[in-house]
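Box S1 | Example of a co-folding query
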Amino acid sequence: MLSGKHIIVGITGGIAAYKAAVLVRLLVRRGAEVQVLMTKAAKEFITPLTMATLSKRPILVENFNPENGAWNSHIDLGCWADAMIIAPATANTLAKMAGGIGDSLLLTTYLSARCPIAVAPAMDLDMMAHPATTQNLQTLAQRGVAIIEAESGELASGLSGKGRMAEPECIVEFIEGWIGRAQTLAGKRALVTAGATIEAIDPVRYITNHSTGKMGYAIASELAARGAEVKLISGRTQLACPKGVERIDVTSADEMYDACVAEWSKCDIGVMCAAVADYTPAEVSTTKIKKSDDDMCIRLRRTRDIAAELGANKGERILVGFALETDNEQANAESKLVRKNLDFVVMNSMQDKGACFGGDTNKISIITKEGTESFPLESKTQAAARIADKIENIITK
Ligand code: C5P
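Box S1 (continued) | Returned holo structure for cytidine-5'-monophosphate
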C-alpha cells in the first residue's frame, strides 16, 4: 500500500532510536522510498551506516556537507516527501517543532514540508507527563501534526509508565491508514462547512455558539485523504487547515452563504457541518452601543439557510446536513432531511455524554429516507470515516 510513496523518517536522540531501524525496514518492504534524517544526537544511539543500509540511501544530518559545501536542501526534501514521520521524537525536538526552531536539517525540513507530518514521542515518563511536553504536543496536534501516542510499560530508565515509543509495526499500520489510503473519491469535489458563525451586534459585541469546528475539519480531512478536492468554508475555529484542503475563512452566516453558493456549482458533494446562526442582528450599530438604565432589545432577522439553498439546487449531487438536537431528536432530524432535500442527516444529541461541542469524540446516527443507523461513541475521526463511507455508498449505488 505504500508503493512509491516518499517518506522521510526523522530520527532524534533517544534510546528508542534503535526501533527506527525496524520501522525503516518495514516501510521499505512495503515499497516506500525512505529518506532518513538524523539529528546529531541520534547518531549516538544508532549508526548512520545501519540506517543508510536499511533505507538504501545515504542518511542526512547537516544542512550542508562541510567537505564540499553541497547543500542538503530542506526545501527540496519537504517538496519530495509524501509524508514525514519523526520517530522517536524527543521532548527536545517536540519543543523545537512547537516553537518553530530550525537548528537542524530535520527541523528546517519539518518547517518547510507541505506533506502530512506525524510524530511518535518517546521519553521517560516524567518528561512525557511534564506540562511543557503536554502543551507542545497539543500545539502540534492543533496545527495538524498526527501524534502516534507513546505506550505505557517498562522504560529504558528502569521506571515504568507512559513513554515507550509505539512499536514499529503499529507506526507502519498508522502510516498505511494515513497516507496509503485508497483514492476512492479521486476526481470528486467536496464543499464542507465547519465552525461557528459570528454575528456582529456592534463593533465590540457579537452572537455566536460553542462550535469548535472539530467535526467539520475531521470530515474535510477524511474526504481529502480519500482523494477528493476539498473546499472548507470555515467560520470561527482555533484549528489548523487540514493538509490537502483549501480553506475559505468567513465570519457571518451571510458570508458563509455567499461563499457556499459561489462554490456549489463546481462541487459533487456538500457536507454542511457548520453551526450557522439562524438569526442575526437586524441592524448592526457602527459605534459601540452605550448602556442606559433601561433594558434593551436587539431585533434579530432570520439568516438564509445554506443547506436548504444548496438542497433546492441539488440535482445529482450529494448533500449532507447535520442535526444537533436537545430533544425530539429523530423527528427533528427527519424533518430536516425532507425540508432541506438532503441525502442524509448526521444526528447528534446534546443528551449524549462525550458527543457534540468541543470534545474529540462524537456519537452519531445517520438518517436517510430508508432508515437510521446508530454508531457508538467514537473519535470524531472515526465518525468522519463513517460519513465518508456513507457518501461513497451513495456514489457507487
Ligand atoms: O435547521 P437547522 O439549523 O437545525 O439545520 C442544521 C443543518 O443546516 C446543519 O447541516 C447546518 O450546517 C445547516 N444550516 C445551514 N444554514 C443555516 C442554518 C443551518 O446550512 N442558516
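The CA atoms of residues 140 and 373 lie 34 Å apart. The pocket of cytidine-5'-monophosphate is lined by residues 193, 253, 272-274, 276, 278, 303, 305-307, 321-323, 336 (CB under 6 Å).
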